Request: fold
Amino acid sequence: MIEGRCLCGTVRFEVEAVRDLSHCHCSMCRKHHGAAFATMARVREEAFRWTAGEEAVRQYESSPGFHRSFCGTCGSSLPGRSPAGGWFVPAGLFTDDPGKRPNAHIFAASAPPWDRISDGLIRFDGWPPNKGLPEIERARPEGVEGLAGSCLCGGIVWELTEPFGRVHNCHCSRCRRARAAAHATNGFTSIDGLRFLRGEDLAVDWKLPEARYFAVSFCRNCGSGVPRRSVERGLAVTPMAALDDDPGREVDRHIHTGSMAPWHTIADDLPQFDEDAPGGVVTSRPLQSK
Reply:
């Protein structure tokens, strides 16, 4: 059996076998996971079962007949039923090596400008041919100026008034489980550089009890990762995948690669650090006063 769980450990599951893995770059997966892409394992109906915490599973219907699941406690994206049958299981939740490696990129045409697809896997602009599944894209919210971001359901909308001082891909086990993905991609500004325009009351903050700083924030309605304020460090941490605009810069580095998922391979030429990068987190001065 291959086991998996959410960040807080409330929800647990196991699968007998994985059919295949693929990286999905669609805007909905990116927003729901708060990650550059979601890596999904296809699992047959009879090969999946919940082992704990099924009552904590929440669902959001992102498009007709397509439901996205998340933990109501910590916000981790969770396995969900595929409209074509069987289950989609986020590979970032696996505690064991699933024994498969990704074989394709889907919705590659929707990859964000700050994340480069650098490997040689086959790419599909949308769903692979003959899948017969609905398109799953989401438009930018209307009436927002500046560098904007939003959750999947549109209930939470914010803007950033500073450029990011640092952006990194973090491969630590906490980030992988929090985003249910290969890694988290976070951008850092000062606290004053983040302004919520609506729906801040929908954001749920959850801190890992044993961690000094590690915490997440997510929308209680749809489970999407949203920015959070780290008051202790004077920082605002924004999931890059939640942005609706091009931030005008790319990722700086990979950190905690010593904890990288066994099924993931780094194919780009960004600097890599087994643990944290030297120099701490850098923020920038405001672009404009608000």
Observations:
- The helical segments are 27-33, 173-179.
